[in-house]
Specification:
2 copies of one chain form a homodimer. Chain A is mainly alpha-helical. The first copy, chain A, folds into 2 domains: about 45 residues, Homeodomain-like (Arc Repressor Mutant, subunit A); about 140 residues, Orthogonal Bundle (Tetracycline Repressor, domain 2), CATH 1.10.357. The first copy, chain A, has 11 helices and no strands. In chain A, helix 4 packs across helix 6, helix 4 runs parallel beside helix 7 and helix 5 runs parallel beside helix 9. In chain A, about 30% of the residues are buried. Chains A and B meet through helix 6, helix 7, helix 9, helix 10 and helix 11 of A and helix 6, helix 7, helix 9, helix 10 and helix 11 of B. The structure holds a DNA duplex.
Chain lengths: ~210, ~210
DNA sequence: AACTATTTTAAACACTTGTTTAAAACACAT
DNA sequence: ATGTGTTTTAAACAAGTGTTTAAAATAGTT
């Protein structure tokens, strides 16, 4: 009999939640199995080991992370508008998956990385032609000439950090979850304005804003 | 007989390294004691438990983190120059303590936070008068009027993220440790220029640059 | 209904965990 | 040298870890 939600996916869903919230070292196989509502042995029946299960979860997380960043760049907008849309999408995506950036950064730093090859994901980014497109725009004088690493950092920093540091910021400014979330929308606008002004200094005032 | 380095401090030093690199859940008491070159029981002889030891390490880390941010603001520079100096110091400090931001953000998210009260550290920041000084500068038209949370986020994002995401960025752009480190200096200049241009739009071109 | 293959479980495995205990090593005053 | 208080160790504790085993429950076929 086919079930509406297969056991295998119940495990993956539970593992995703637990791993994201506590990291690989911060949780046990039993905790995951309990979250999925079943026996421990079943987890190892479907996935050989905790490491193997983690590997799958991490790789799909990476996939989501990278994919969300690249969808914008296939459109035929101007580079400046692509940037605006990108920031908008990134804030939206990360608001739905707030643990993702810390999870990826933390687990990339782990020595025993469950033998995960990160390179393949990064190759996808390079293969998408994003970097070439930016370099081209720089050559044509449409974009400020800073190196691509710095460009990546500017965007990633201002999109990801506000999500990552939520608890820290709430502590510093003594504000509630709701207040922080609404302030994040204002901040997104500030970030967009700052980045566009900096990266497109000439035509930033005349270009049409995002709807 | 007094020793040059007391056992207690040997433990703290080892614990600092191991906790920072692997987090609370990612390491064992025995790993710490081994890194300090001694028996496990000694760790619990000086510090009652793993949690207690962690609490001390975390609190001093927080102390460092907060202190490094506040030293600039006691000087009598202009607000714009303070900002430039702040960014400079923050990059320098974080380059020496690269694991600090991820460590703090991660451990602040932990449910079992070893019963650490974070509030006292944040109170120090507010008590320093930084926020008031910025609000004043905004009233006097010396600084762009954005809310203080957004201001904090802009600065923290652009200073901390480039350090936190080192491995991720190296992967994406396929560059070595050395290349990343040197690129970080260029990036610091870009960040400074972008932030100053955005926060001090009127007088940013005429004000004297940092030596 | 009886057989087969798949899915799920309880129980056990060897090992690591944080913590404690009791004895040993040490420093130092008398 | 003896006694005293401190520092360090080896060994043990119960509880929790990842993983495996063998039996039970279930589904599907004849």
């Amino acid at each position: 009999m086919k079930k509406d939600v297969t056991t295998e996916e119940k495990i993956k869903e539970a593992a995703r939640h637990v791993f994201m919230a506590k990291g690989f070292a911060g949780c046990s196989s039993r905790e995951i199995s309990k979250a999925a509502g079943m026996n421990v042995a079943l987890v190892n029946y479907y996935f050989r080991s905790k490491s193997q299960l983690f590997k799958i979860i991490f790789e799909t997380a990476m996939e989501d992370f990278v994919t969300s960043m690249m969808t914008v760049f296939s459109s035929d907008q101007s580079i400046e508008n692509k940037m605006r849309i990108f920031i908008d999408r990134e804030f939206e995506f990360l608001s739905k998956h707030p643990e993702l950036p810390v999870f990826i950064i933390t687990e990339m730093n782990r020595e025993e990385g469950c033998s995960i090859d990160h390179a393949c994901f990064f190759e996808k980014i390079a293969a998408s032609g994003i970097f070439n497109e930016c370099a081209q725009a720089q050559l044509e004088g449409k974009m400020r000439k800073i190196n691509i690493l710095s460009l990546t950092l500017l965007i990633m920093s201002n999109c990801q950090y506000p999500i990552m540091a939520k608890n820290l910021m709430q502590g510093i400014h003594g504000i509630s979850h709701e207040d922080y979330t609404s302030n994040l929308l204002l901040h997104k606008q500030n970030v967009t304005e700052m980045l566009v002004n900096y990266l497109f200094p000439i035509n930033s005032k005349t270009t049409n804003k995002l709807k």
